[in-house]
């Protein structure tokens, strides 16, 4: 994920939260080119320089990314620990290529564990990662509660056992 030199240390989650990418027209592109000197290499600034501009949202106007699709698997589920590691790295570790994510490790979960134990990981991102796991646990508890209520509805004696 290339987003330009100035934003290369921002993870995907933060990028979606604080950066707004909009398509620009020819008039706006000409204005931008006038501000840039002749030695400016647009491809090193941002690969979509000629069609889009990246704008930072005003403070307190940042967005909260909503993760669509399949849930991030539980951290404690041994069958899906590779998927968990990959998802966490994709969202919360700054990267340009897949090699940036896995670095020297052979497994996604090992690279993820090393990333999560890194002292440079911000407390904000640690908080978000922990909340994702909390959401997973809450959804498990909701499903269990729903199942127990159905059993109690079918057999009132089960409800009295508690």
TrEMBL record:
<protein>
    <recommendedName>
        <fullName>Helitron helicase-like domain-containing protein</fullName>
    </recommendedName>
</protein>
């Amino acid at each position: 994920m290339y987003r330009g030199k100035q934003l290369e240390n921002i993870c995907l989650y933060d990028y979606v939260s604080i950066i707004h990418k909009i398509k620009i027209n020819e008039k706006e592109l000409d204005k931008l080119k006038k501000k840039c000197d002749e030695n400016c290499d647009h491809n090193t600034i941002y690969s979509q320089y000629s069609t889009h501009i990246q704008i930072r949202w005003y403070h307190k106007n940042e967005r909260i990314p909503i993760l669509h699709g399949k849930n991030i698997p539980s951290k404690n589920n041994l069958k899906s620990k590779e998927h968990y590691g990959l998802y966490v790295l994709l969202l919360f570790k700054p990267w340009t290529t897949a090699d940036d994510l896995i670095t020297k490790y052979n497994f996604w979960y090992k690279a993820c564990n090393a990333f999560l134990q890194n002292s440079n990981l911000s407390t904000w991102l640690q908080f978000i990662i922990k909340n994702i796991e909390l959401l997973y646990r809450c959804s498990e508890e909701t499903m269990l509660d729903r199942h127990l209520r159905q059993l109690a509805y079918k057999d009132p004696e089960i409800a009295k056992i508690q």
